[in-house]
Amino acid sequence: MADDSAPAPHGRMRELDFFLGEWEAPGVFHETPFGPRKEIDMRTEGADDHRGWWITLRTTELPTPHNPTPLTARYVWGYEPETDEFVADWFDSNGGRARQRSRGWVGDRLEFVGTMTVNGRTVPLRDTFTRRGPDAYHHVGAVDLGSGWLPVDEEDAVRKSGRS
């Protein structure tokens, strides 16, 4: 007799539950070859999707005098048991996209490394999240344009609602 129950996501997906909920994440885009420095006021919503197989993070920058053309992005995180790695894909409102991988949390630090493609150019990308308690984290996004890691964006996020 066949088992009619749906398959369950891998238990390691629960390691990403920290990001579920609503977050306020003010920060800065640093001056880079991509553009000038600008302060950002960002909101992030993390949700458990597709019966727990994926976590989706939606980021929305708010329009401000410092940021008249705010960015939005969608991150989709999952787990690949064959490689024992978390996988991440993201897409943004400037046409950028990325594919990254992570071994998971090391202490309070989670690092995704891969590549980002924007305007036809693909570069190494690293996103580092550092927990600062049950309801806060620091994020740094960095690229390598050939001379080492260059910080692009940086935010300090505080949970407004959801899991903690």
In DSSP terms (H or I, runs of 4 or more residues), the helix count works out at: 0
Characterize the overall form.
globular
Work out the count of structural domains: 1
Structural class: mainly beta
Q: Sketch the major β-sheet.
A: 10 strands, antiparallel, barrel
- Termini distance? 41 Å
Q: Strand-residue fraction?
A: over 45%
Protein name: THAP4-like heme-binding beta-barrel domain-containing protein
Compact summary:
The protein has 164 residues and is mainly β. It is 0% helix and 58% strand. It has a 10-stranded antiparallel β-barrel with strand order 1-2-3-4-5-6-7-8-9-10.
Explain the overall architecture.
This is THAP4-like heme-binding beta-barrel domain-containing protein. The protein is an all-beta fold. The chain has a single domain (17-30, 38-161), classed as Calycin beta-barrel core domain (Lipocalin). It is built from no helices and 10 strands. A 10-stranded antiparallel β-barrel has the order 1-2-3-4-5-6-7-8-9-10. The protein is globular, with a radius of gyration of 16 Å. It starts with 20 loop residues before the first strand and ends with a strand. The relative contact order is 0.19.
